[in-house]
## 1
Amino acid sequence: MNVRRLSLRFVALGYLLVILLAPLGLMVWRTLAYHADAAWKAVSDPMTVHAFEVTLEATAIAVPLNTVFGILCGLAIVRRRFPGKGLVNAFIDLPLAISPVVVGLSFFLLFGRTGWFGPWLSSHGYQVLFALPAIVMVTVFVSVPFVAREVIPTLREIGDEQEQAAQTLGASGWQTFWRITLPSIRWAVVYGVVLTTARCLGEYGAVAVVSGNIEGRTQTATLRVQDYYENLSTGGIYGVSLMLAAIAVVTLILMSIVKPREERV
Amino acid sequence: MSLGFVATFISVVIALPIAALVWASVKHGGTSFWAAVSNPEAVSALKLSVMIAAIAAALNAVFGTVTAWVLVRDDFRGKSLVNAVIDLPFALPTIVAGLLLLTFYGPYSPVGVDFAFSRAGIVFALLFVTLPFVVRTVQPVLIELDREMEQAARSLGANEGTTFRRIVLPNILPGILSGVTMAFARAVGEIGSIVLIANRPFRTEMASVFILNHVAYNTSAAAAVSVVLLSISFGVLLLLGCVRRFTTRHERT
């Protein structure tokens, strides 16, 4: 056992401890030791329950939509040749690189009073901004890349020989997809779905711009945390945060279970 | 048919909102756009974002590479647990991340440091949210790396430092660079983890916070700053494309 190896291990583990684990541990401990009653009260508050419902609704729409899109987009990029492929490839990475606030503002400008669609929609009685539709749309935007980014390398790796064999044997495109392609990329899809879900549940910046943060109506779980913070309710902050952190830990466990084998150490 | 769906989805969900943003910032002409971005508060917010994101990305380049190295080459009990924990910042809502750091490094810190509402606090928050990027790009390269090259270098008399510098580093450099680029892109627009602590104009107000603060009453200023952030994102993506292209060309030859 040499000194260099031990010191590198010390640096890496120390860094993770200082940045990730100690703050998380302290929050869990403080919540349970000092604020358990207030935290429980905040979590069972009807407004908090409603905030989680709004978050779940947006997630329930965004995840299936982006899963279908991710698979189709992966197939198009890997298996087909078409003009503008490079552009499609660049566009699906964009939500990873753009600030969520910029995303929120874009939708704000699209559906606001002076926006492109705002006046028409409001004159026909549709409320998009500061309502569920806008929350859903920004949630879809920020979680676009995850399934596609997991599916693309897997599709490349498995190649298309089995698919060609199936086609030669007379399988239709639909049959080939369900019997050959989907089973071989299923873990990549599941991993992508887990990442998408985590991203949707935790979205803050874009939702903060378009939701209007109306308690009991358009407030999401992350906005609820901010609300408690601004009202200096320690129990409320810790309660809702602990619940979100618990969801994150479950996500993490799911991620390590379904993680593609070659990435394991 | 599926191509049509992909194209429609991308144009409606991604391209259309961005077009609306760009249009809103240029429709009153270049002069008003320039006036909005050269306003001192906006300039200071943009500068701060770029500077702090660069610091956080650089620090994570070093610590991320060390962590990836330890995860691949070292062996100790609980290593797979540590490996799973790396993804925590991807799974945890960013506003909760901000709160964790406020708990540990804020006014009631058990270690006696108070970074809340300071630039150092922002760096910590960005280190947290960008931690996985470099680790996750360097780790697979290190796993694939042929140990024989290093053994050959060692048997020819190179010491550990030289072997790392001349053999390992050139191989993992593209991974480090693409990880750092993604970390920078993420950090420069980060909002959730810093929104609770970084809102003092000219001191700790980042560009993303500036946008959030100005959406309601000065939308054109918010739109102008957003377009600058958007161009930074495009630039970063271009750079990432170059790094990836360089890497794959390197592999082919």
## 2
Amino acid sequence: MKRFSVGAILGTVLPPLLLFVVVLLLWEGAVRGFGLKPYLLPGPGLVWQALQRDADKYLQAVRFTGLAALCGLGASLLVGTTVALIFSQSKWIRSSGYPYAIFLQTVPIVAIAPLIVHWFGFGFGSIVLTACIISLFPIIANGTSGLVNIDPDLLDLFRLNKASRWQVLWKLRFPSAVPALCIGARTSAGMAVVGAIVGEFFTGYGGKRFGLGYLILFASGQARIADLFACMFASTLLGVAIFTAVTLITGVIQRRWYQ
Amino acid sequence: MAFAAGVPTLRDVSVSIPTGQFVSLLGPSGCGKSTLLRLMAGLLTPTDGTITVAGVAPEQARKSSTRMAFVFQDPTLLPWRTVAQNLRLPLELQGVPTAEHAALISSSLRLIGLSDDDARKRPRMLSGGMRMRVSLARALVTSPELLLLDEPFAALDDVLRQQLNEELVRIWREKMWTAVFVTHNVAEAVFLSERVLVMSSRPGTLVADVPIPFAYPRTPELRGTAEFAKLTADLSARLREAAT
């Protein structure tokens, strides 16, 4: 197993950070050099000011959206794994159900979100549901392929030892599918954040509880471009944070699985 | 016996293997020897003809009367389980009482020459030869009466293959199960078996039934004798005929 060393971490973190600083400098330089108006493109300095001025607001929104995304991801892991387990039980079930799973992948989330809000109200639940629906497909797809693509010799081994269907599922198919489910979870992690923000577009402002989606809508309505940039940075950071956390957790699971 | 419409995989295979015998199925690649082994295990059903194990259909025998184990060409270990947990698998699946697991596992480990330290490792940490040993130990843990081996050592280098052949013979002498060993390696078949069945390809059929006269226990020195060389050369010639 490769151990984490300070050098290795610096090696992966430092180059993109340096590039980020260079881009910021070029950006600020361009805004000043070409005399761009802040309502067209605010420089990073103005964005930073916006972030600092409303730091509390952004922190609260990140927490709210992050929680919704995590709940949505958790729900889609639960639902997606269950669906995949059902799909793995027969080719017939799979071929009748899979097209509808693809439907989840292809239907634009902005088309479903208003329906969800219409049925489930302007609350946290609707946001979680939107995040869940958008992040469901990778779990179903990866989970199903992991549960179904089993070495035929291993299936024979279980058959020779008189294994029941249940034993094949829990002692062979499910453990074999864990790495694929981890990959699905990583793909879904970023999507869940997008889903939560889209959900918030439609649920809007609910009392003191609001998320990044609401802030984006609000800033856009007032043409506050620096605020929009601030929202974008906050959303991106949230997405990266959740993706990183899920990657670390699934990495640990996968390592425990094999070593 | 035939598989898909019109294309028989095996034809006119008629053979009887007495209890306790070590038999090798020797044939060129694609001659249907693995198919024959899978038919014996009841993993495949013949389209024509009959196969019986201890008087009943293989599937039946496996479920009720005969303890049967199969060793695959690949070690087919579960990567998320340690060696000991892999050996426990057949016991769990067959519903052997948990209290008996530890004793059965450790005796099987000892039989195949694996230490307690190895037993705690995951398959990924083992060499190819060690993995094959674990696979053998897993087959032996249920004390089989019929052991079916499908080219288990084909992927190993020569030295390792010879070592494992010697151990396999030693264990067989100790436990006296009936063994059917599929291989395309002539020296391996001669070293191990009491009897070698030579198969030809397309359709697979038996072309020779050769008794191997060497006494047991068989030691590495056997491979250096003139008789061994002659018999091996003989069988190689038959195999070449069968392949054309």
